[in-house]
Amino acid sequence: MKIETSSNQRMTWTIQDPASQRLTWYKPPLTVLVIKKIRDDSVLSPFVQLVKWLITEKRMVVFVEHSVLDDPLLSNQPGFNMTRDKLMPFREGKDDLTDKIDFIVCLGGDGTLLYASSLFQQSVPPVMAFHLGSLGFLTPFEFVNFEEQMINVLEGNAALTLRSRLRCIILRKDEATGKPTKAPTSLLVLNEVVIDRGPSPYLSNIDLYLDGKHITSVQGDGLIVSTPTGSTAYAVAAGASMIHPSVPAIMVTPICPHSLSFRPIVVPAGVELKISVSPESRNTAWVSFDGRSRQELKHGDSLRVTTSIYPVPSICAQDQITDWFDSLAECLHWNVRKKQRHLDELSDLTRSHSSSNDTLDSLDRPDTLDS
Question: Which tens digits make up the pLDDT trace of 285-295?
Answer without folding.
Answer: 999 999 999 99
